[in-house]
Amino acid sequence: MIQIGDSLPAGSLQEFIEVEGEGCTLGPNAFDVKAATAGKTIAVFALPGAFTPTCSAKHVPGYVEAADELRAAGVDEIWCVSVNDAFVMGAWGREQKAGGKVRMMADGSAAFTQAVGLTLDLTSKGMGLRSQRYSMLVRDGVVRTLNVEAPGQFAVSDAATMLQQARAL
């Protein structure tokens, strides 16, 4: 499992782009994790799945609501990572009104999730390999804080905890 002080692994995540611009085409676009985090402070939070109860009712809304405060605390971007495809993440982002606040980053094959060592096997529930619920504050590609939830919990990866940590760095 990735630890505080580790660099994020090489790889890419996809984001569904609604409006063409800045070298991005409409639809799914791949972003190199190392290049996208270089020189930035990123609040990353990951969760088991789009449109699932806790993720939709608490986790994403908390970060959408706290986006301005997180930016004021020095966070350049907020990423929601889930083992879903970019089309699903794009639709979920629209439903959650995340545009301009939280980047909905798809890890469709769970490659990033496996590389950070935070997979969750939900095969018995019909969901396959997913991500554990966690958050981390990343500065210039290096993990500065890491908050991994216990199974079935939502207590330490929330936006309020991330905001407190961002203000402390």
UniProtKB/TrEMBL annotation:
It catalyses: a hydroperoxide + 2 glutathione = an alcohol + glutathione disulfide + H2O. Pfam families: Redoxin. The keyword Oxidoreductase applies. It comes from the Bacteria. It is an enzyme of class 1 (oxidoreductase). Keywords: Antioxidant, Oxidoreductase, Peroxidase, Redox-active center. Residues 2-168 form the Thioredoxin domain. Its EC number is 1.11.1.27. InterPro entries: PRX5-like, Redoxin, Thioredoxin-like_sf, Thioredoxin_domain. Coiled coil: none annotated. Belongs to the peroxiredoxin family. Prx5 subfamily. Thiol-specific peroxidase that catalyzes the reduction of hydrogen peroxide and organic hydroperoxides to water and alcohols, respectively. Plays a role in cell protection against oxidative stress by detoxifying peroxides. This is Glutathione-dependent peroxiredoxin. It comes from Pelomonas baiyunensis.
